[in-house]
Amino acid sequence: MIEAWTWPTPNGHKLHIALEELELPYKLVPVNIGAGEQFKPEFLAITPNHRIPAIVDPDGPGGKPIRLFESGAILIYLGEKAGKLIPKDPAARYICLEWVMFQMSGVGPMFGQFGHFNNYAPEKIPYALERYQNEVKRLHRVLDKRLSEAEWLAGDEYSIADIIMYPWLRFPERRNVDPQDYPHVKRWFDAMSARPAVQRGCAVLSEKQRQGPITDKERDVMFGKTQFAAR
Ligand SMILES: N[C@@H](CCC(=O)N[C@@H](CS)C(=O)NCC(=O)O)C(=O)O
User: Fold this and answer.
1) 49 CA to middle of ligand 1, Å?
2) 185 and 151 in one domain?
3) To test ligand 1's pocket by mutation, which of 49, 51, 110 has the most ligand atoms within 8 angstroms of CB?
4) For the chain, how many structural domains are there in total?
5) What's the pTM?
6) Are 43 and 102 contacting, i.e. CB atoms less than 8 angstroms apart?
7) 147: alpha, beta or left, given left = phi > 0 and alpha = psi -120 to 50?
8) Residue 231 confidence (pLDDT) above 90
């Protein structure tokens, strides 16, 4: 059974939704990233980058175990393993991968930086806030254009490209985004939200979500000395 080393964050939910959509049996291994569990030796043995999600599949290629980190690589692996959620048509397959890369290199990091400077930076830095707010809006415009011409990101077929994008489009108010400004993204988002597997995926480990403001200990683990210690 696939081990999902994970936590209820946007990047974790990509994995949870994919596993639910693909109906692959999995076992959750929660990694509390606020408490510093990502730095434990058993997790570092799976991912030198100490970020969730990561997986261990005892039945990997050639019947041998495989460990994987980086949500994009994991979703491509799972889609190929199940033979689903990646278009078979070669051109559509590349378009699917194009949007997976767009999420991994653009939406994830830029929305993440906006969130950091907006919610966690000890001081408000206008230049950083303006830069990442502009990027958040520009990336929404790119998505809105794509979804004005195609039902799903890869084209006619629902795919891992939609799954990888969705968790980062939740809670738009946290990014000062009004969904009415991006009607095609809204149409797609509502269709995604109605899928039972998406709902199940987003509920995974929800009981572990932090309630209330970040503590000093969590701040140190995520953004301070513990985070940046040489390992
Ligand atoms: N590019 C990575 C990003 C993973 C990532 O940033 N994960 C966050 C949670 S959403 C994490 O594990 N943070 C722990 C930390 O910063 O120490 C992926 O897509 O898998």
Assistant:
1) 8
2) yes
3) 51
4) 2
5) 0.97
6) no
7) alpha
8) no
